[in-house]
């Protein structure tokens, strides 16, 4: 493990991730990115509709609206817009807000439902508005019809469940109270929707979409390969926090004796960027990355973050951007299940195809491939790598 803090590297990485979004967005539309041109400067501007490109690659944009009539009254011009660029690894989302309370912090969640009780919800990042009440955050993970979480057991148990909505909360309960956004309230209303579980009310959401068909369910599938853009992001020599990811079992270590991974996380005021590298796994195969509550069975509350495609040497990587530190948590105030705010501090990497580890002999004594729910179709193989080199209750993300 290595721990350093260099603000210039954080800024460089954030700009690289923003460039990744811009490069991919223009690639999807058949263009090229030059930051010194008007086109380059406007590459992250909101798109008003789906845009198609060569090979069916598309971006998807949608409005985010005031969450209640009271919000619309106290902030009459408040609005938001999300633009999602899907690719072969995961999805990049640029979430922008306009005309909110200036100089304030807001917190972004992916939710199962747009309104109370919100259902299963996951903390994704923060937005700090400028003097005009405008701001944005960029996140990278699974933000499409494959978005789901699952908990096979542990502190709570629930089946694979999709989260297709977005919600933005006032981080400070005092802000909406002082603005008069809570008519009749004698004191600020407190909700658990920030990193300390002491936030204000919901400001914006996607209630303009139906409960069971939120906007993320409409993001088109893409095969856009942003590997070249990802490869431009180098963390060598300047790392915030790095840690090894190890074979998940003796059987995996035996069938893939050189297999290993390394994760590097750099934090900034908005959220965290994870660069997950793999080495010496099965070549030319797909693997899936999850953030989990515990490193081994039953895994606890787990969230799908992205895919990795190995090259001919069995190496590969993926970049994820969200809350990946001691504030990482999910919760469900009600709906299909209910559970208190719960931290997820571990990482797990699954074989996406159940046949791959079975044919390699990684499943000693198995008569047929073992199937787990850890990919976008809930039909994956066994766990390949994890962070069992850290204690169950003190996974590596708790140390970022």
Approximate shape? elongated
Query: How much helix, percentage-wise, in residues?
Result: 10-25%
Structural class: alpha+beta
The total of beta strands comes to: 22
Q: What's the end-to-end separation, in Å?
A: 11 Å
Describe the sheet with the most strands. Answer: 11 strands, antiparallel
**Low-confidence regions:** 2-18, 23-49, 228-238
The topology string of helices and strands comes to EHHEEHEEEEEEEEHEHEHEEEEEEEEHE
Summed over residues and divided by their number, the pLDDT gives a mean of: 86
- The helix tally amounts to 7
Instruction: Indicate the radius of gyration in whole angstroms.
Output: 21 Å
Tell me what portion of residues adopts beta-strand conformation.
25-35%
What would you say this structure looks like, in words?
Strands 1, 9, 10, 13, 14, 15, 16, 17, 18, 21 and 22 form an eleven-stranded antiparallel sheet that branches. The radius of gyration is 21 Å and the shape is elongated. By secondary structure, it is of the alpha+beta class. It is 14% helix and 34% strand. It contains seven helices and 22 strands. It has helices at 7-28, 38-41, 69-74, 174-179, 227-231, 250-255, 355-360; strands at 2-3, 51-52, 58-66, 79-86, 91-98, 105-111, 120-128, 135-141, 148-151, 158-162, 165-170, 202-205, 241-247, 260-267, 272-279, 286-292, 302-309, 316-322, 329-332, 339-343, 346-351, 383-386.
């Amino acid at each position: 493990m290595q721990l350093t803090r260099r603000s210039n590297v954080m800024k460089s990485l954030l700009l690289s991730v923003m460039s990744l979004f811009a490069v991919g967005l223009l690639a999807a539309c058949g263009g090229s990115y030059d930051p010194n041109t008007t086109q380059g400067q406007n590459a992250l501007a909101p798109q008003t509709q789906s845009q198609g490109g060569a090979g069916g690659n598309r971006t998807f944009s949608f409005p985010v609206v005031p969450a209640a009539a009271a919000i619309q009254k106290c902030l009459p011009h408040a609005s938001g817009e999300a633009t999602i660029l899907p690719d072969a690894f995961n999805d990049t989302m640029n979430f922008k807000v306009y005309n909110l309370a200036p100089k304030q912090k807001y917190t972004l969640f992916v939710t199962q439902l747009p309104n109370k009780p919100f259902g299963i919800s996951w903390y994704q990042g923060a937005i700090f508005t400028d003097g005009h009440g405008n701001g944005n955050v960029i996140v990278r993970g699974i933000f499409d019809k494959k978005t789901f979480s699952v908990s096979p057991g542990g502190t709570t148990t629930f089946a694979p469940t999709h989260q297709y909505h977005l919600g933005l909360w006032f981080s400070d309960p005092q802000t909406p109270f002082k603005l008069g956004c809570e008519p009749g309230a004698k004191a600020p209303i407190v909700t658990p929707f920030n990193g300390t579980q002491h936030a204000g009310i919901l400001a914006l959401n996607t209630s303009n979409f139906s409960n069971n068909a939120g906007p993320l369910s409409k993001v088109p599938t893409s095969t856009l390969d942003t590997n070249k853009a990802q490869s431009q992001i180098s963390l060598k020599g300047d790392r915030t926090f790095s840690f090894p990811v190890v074979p998940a079992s003796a059987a995996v270590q035996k069938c893939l004796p050189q297999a290993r991974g390394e994760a590097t996380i750099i934090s900034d005021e908005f959220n965290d960027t994870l660069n997950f590298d793999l080495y010496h796994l099965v070549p030319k195969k797909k693997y899936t990355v999850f953030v989990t509550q515990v490193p081994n069975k039953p895994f606890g509350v787990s969230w799908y973050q992205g895919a990795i495609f190995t090259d001919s040497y069995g190496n590969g990587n993926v970049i994820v951007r969200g809350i990946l530190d001691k504030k990482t948590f999910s919760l469900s105030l009600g709906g299909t299940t209910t559970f208190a705010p719960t931290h997820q501090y571990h990482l797990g990497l699954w074989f996406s195809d159940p046949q791959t580890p079975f044919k390699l002999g990684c499943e000693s004594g198995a008569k047929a491939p073992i199937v787990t729910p850890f990919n976008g179709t809930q039909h994956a193989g066994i766990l390949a790598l994890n962070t069992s080199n850290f204690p169950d209750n003190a996974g590596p993300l708790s140390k970022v």
